[in-house]
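Take a look at this chain, C-alpha cells included, and explain the fold to me:
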Amino acid sequence: MTINKENTETSNFELIFETSPIGMFLLNEYSLVKKINNAALEFLNQNRKDALNKRFGNEIHCQGSTEDIQGCGFGLQCQSCKLQLAINSVLKTGQAITGVEYAKVLIHNGETRKYWFRASVTPIMISEKCNVVVALDNITDSKAVEDSTKKSETELLLSEEKQRVLYERYRSLIMNMPDSFTYNKVIYDEDGTPVDYEVLEINEAYEKTFNVSRAEIIGKRHSELFFGDDPEIFRQGMVEYGEVASTGVGLILPVYYSEWSERWFSMKLYSPEPSFFVSIITDMTKRIQVENELHLAKEKAEAVNRAKSEFLANMSHEIRTPINGIVGMIDLTLLKVINQEQRQNLEIAKACADSLLKIINDILDFSKIEAGKLVIEKIGFNMGDLLDSTIKTHSPLAMKKKLELKCDFSSSIPQTMQGDPNRLKQILNNLLNNALKFTEHGSVTLSVKELSIMDEMVEVMFAICDSGIGISEQDQEKLFRNFSQVDGSITRKYGGTGLGLAISKQLVQMMGGTITVESQKGKGSTFSFSLKFLLSEKLSYPTQDTFTPNHTTKPLRILIVEDDKVNLMVLTLMLKEKGHFIESASNGFEALSLHEKNVYDVIFMDIQMPIMDGIEATAKIREREGERRHTPIIALTAYALVGDREKFLSYGLDEYIPKPIKMCELSQLLEVVVNRGISAKKSGDESEQEVKISDSGKVLNLSYDVPLGVDRDVTLQEISRDIEEISRPLTYEDMNLIEEIAHKIKNNCNLIEADELKTLAFKIELAARRENQEQAIDYILSLKKEFEIYLFLEH
C-alpha cells in the first residue's frame, strides 16, 4: 500500500502544530477561534470546548476586549493593537506577517498581569475561504532578560488520518516561523543508546541564520555535518536529545555560543512522537549585544554620576573654605569696639557672604534632587513653632522694607504632626524670601489652613500672598523652571539664581503635594501648595530657634586639626574669644602625636588633610582609647552633600559642623557635645556603683534615692509603651526619634532603679546618635527580652 506523500506531510504537520510548545490558534474570516492547540489551552487554563468560537481577544482574556460590550476589535485599545492589525492585514492581503512583538494586559481570575508575546500570522485557505493561523509565543521572561523556565509537556498521540489532514495546511506556518526550526530523528545503537540523529526538516529561518540550503542539511546526520565537534560535548548533547525523544519531556537549554555560526542562541527541545525531537533555535546575538551595550552605558552613566558628586563635593569644599574665613573674621571683628561706619561696612560684607552661601546651597540642593539623593524625613514637629520661627527669620527684612509681615494660622490645625520640618521650612523660606524681595509696598501674608483630616492624616494648605510686582499670565509659564526668571532684568535688579522656585516645586512634589501660582501684573502674587502630614504626639525636631545649654563652668582644652591656615586662625580666635585653651595640628599624623601626650576635652577634626585625613585619624584615636575613654571629636569640613553627617558619625565622630562656621552655632554645638560627654560619664559611673540584695532578692543601687511620689506601676506601663514604640522608627530609619525614646526609657528605668534596663537604653541612645542602625536593633531586641524577664521577676 502506497501512502500519499501529501497526506503524510499534512499529518506530520498537524502533529507538530498540536504538540508545539507555543500557542497556536486557527481563526476564521470573522476572527473567531476555530481551533486551538494544547499549549494555548494550558496557558489560558481552559478546556477545548469553552475556548472555541470566541474572538481572539476575548479568548486570551485581553483587558482591551472588556472596554466595549462587543468585545475584541471594538475597544479603544483594539484600534492600536499590533496583533489585531496584523490579523486584519493577513485576512485582507493573504500575506503572512511574522515577528510581531507586543505587550498585553491579560485578566486571570480577576487579577491583571502584563505579558509580552511574539506572534506570527499565516494565511490558510479552508473551503476556499481565507483563514489565519496565529502562533503566539509568550516571551515575557525573555523581555525581562531571564531564562524561561516553562517546560512544554505535550504527549498526546493523534490518529494517523487526522495528522495527514493537518500537515499541508500548517507547513507554511513552520516555514515562516521567525525562529530556526529543525525536525530530527534519533538514531540508536544495538543497546538502545542514542548515538546520532538525522535532520528531517528545516525552515527558511534556519537556512538564513546558518547560511545553508535545505539540500545541504536534509537527510544528513549530525556527525556528518558537525564532525569537528568535541566528542564529549556531542555525547552529552545526544544524551539530552535522546532523553527528550524517549520521555517526551521538553527541555530548555541555556544560552550558548556557536563557533560554527559565530552567534549566540537559545534552544527549546520537545518531542512530537517517540524517537523524534524538534529544536526551536532563537538567535540571541542582537539581544546580548544590546544588553552588553546597556551594561556599558550604565557603567559609564554611574561613572559620570560619581564624577559629578565628587566635583560637587570638591567645589563645596573649595568655595566654603574661603567663605568660612570671610564670615569668621567678620564675626570676630564685629565683636570688637569699632565705629558705626566700620560696623555698617562689615555688616554689608557679611550679608554679601551670606547671599553667596545661599546661592551655593541652592545649587547643591538642586544637584541632590537631580541625583535622587535628597531624602525626605518623617519626624515629629510642632507646626506652630515652625511657623513662628520662620516668620521671625524674615521679620528683619520686612521691617527694613517697611512691609507688614503676617501669619494667619488656623486654630483647627493639630499642633503636632509628622513630616519633614526642615524641607517644609526651606520651601516656606524660599517663597517668603521671594515675596519680600519683589514687594516694595504693602504686606506679605503666610496663611495656613486645614483642608481635610481623616484617620491619622491631615492635609494642610499653605499660601504666601504679597502685594508686589506680580507676574503676567505669559511669564507665569516660565516659573518653576531650572535657572529661570521671568525677565532678565529681574536678575540684574533683585539678584538670585532662579533655582528657588524650581527647588521648592520639586520638594513639594517629593513630599506628595502640588504647588500653584495666581498672579496679576502689578497687583501681587499668591503661591499655594498643599501637603499631607501624619498626626503625631511625639516631637523629635526642635522647631524653635532657642538654645538653653548647661554651660560648662571651666575653659576647655581643645585640639584643632586643620590644614588651612586661614580656617585654623578663624576657629582659634572664635574659641579663644570664649576663653578656651587651643592647640593645633595640620594633619592627622600630628593630631595622633598630640593626643598620645595630652588629654583634650574636645577635638575639632578637619576631614580633607594631607599625610593622614580626619577619618583615618579618628579611627586610630578610637582604637587607642577603647571603651574606657572617649574624647568628643567634631567633624570640621566644607562638605555639604546629603548623608555627610550620617557618614561622618558612622566613622566614630560625635558631631558635624559644615563651613562656613557661625560663632553662635559653634558655641551651641560645643556645649551640646561637652554636656553629652558629661552625661555619658555620669551614666557610666552610676553603672559601677555599689549594689546590695534586698530580702526579696531585688538588686538595689545604694547611691540612688528614689524620688518621692513616683508611681512604680505607672512608670512600668510607660516604659512598656515606649519599648513597643521604639521599634517603629526603624522602618523609616528615624534615628533621632529612636534616640529620643531611648533617652526617655533610660530616665524612667532610673526612677525605678532598673539598672540593667537603663544601661541597655543608654546603649540604644548612643547607637542611634551615631546612626548605627544594626547596633541599635540588637540592643532594642535585648531590651525587650530583659524587660520581659524584669516583669516576670516583679510579679
Remarks:
- The chain has 26 helices and 24 strands.
- The chain has a mean pLDDT of 79.
- The radius of gyration is 38 Å.
